[in-house]
Write a structure and sequence with these properties.
It is a single chain. With about 220 residues, the protein is of the alpha+beta class. The chain has a 4-stranded mixed β-sheet with strand order 2-1-3-4, covered by helices on one side. It has 10 helices and 4 strands; from the N terminus they run E-H-E-H-E-E-H-H-H-H-H-H-H-H. The longest helix is centred in the middle third of the chain and has 26 residues. The radius of gyration is 18 Å and the shape is globular. Helix 4 runs antiparallel to helix 5 and helix 7 packs across helix 10.
Length: about 220
Amino acid sequence: MAEVKLFRTWSSPFALRIVWALKLKDVQYDTIFEDLSNKSPLLLQYNPVHKKVPVLVHNGKSVAESFVILEYIEETWKENPLLSEDPHERAAARFWAKFGDEKVLPSIWEAFNSEGKEQEEGIVKAKENLKYLEEELKGKKFFGGEHIGFADIALGLLAEYENVFEEVASMKVIAEDEFPLLSEWKRTFADAPIIKENWPPRDKLVTKFQALREANLLKKGT
């Protein structure tokens, strides 16, 4: 049997993508939890370039970066495909995944780490990006259609981490009246058994991101 290991932290949303993909494909694996303030020699060995998680090790060979790992998982384990057989649909899934990482998530993070007028402007910017996701969900249950797919896994952290940001920073980005389809997608995705069973503890996330936000605001003020 193939040996599969996942290097991750308890809170990394990018490592969660790999957890979800492996679980959806019923791949057995071992988890190595890393402390990024004291990185293990193995992590540095398997990811010497970026020195961060997630890292997937399959039969002694390592793969780094969450989207690259997702593609590797999709090509290696064919069960429960994350990407359509249709070339255009595959390209669209990759596009929305990239759009999420390059536009949606940075704009929400920027608003989260701001206050007052700057935060208000950041929320407006984030909502402009989210409008494209709302449009993409018309007539769909998931970005991948009727089943959780590549783009859903890529954007899935919105289903929980955005709620945590709302609680910590008193900001509402994905409001039901503005984004009904995205709001419904968040609930449906978050309630899927494999997704729901693997969320990090909510109270620990709130504590972690409170501390992160305070530190980031302090840096901005100096």
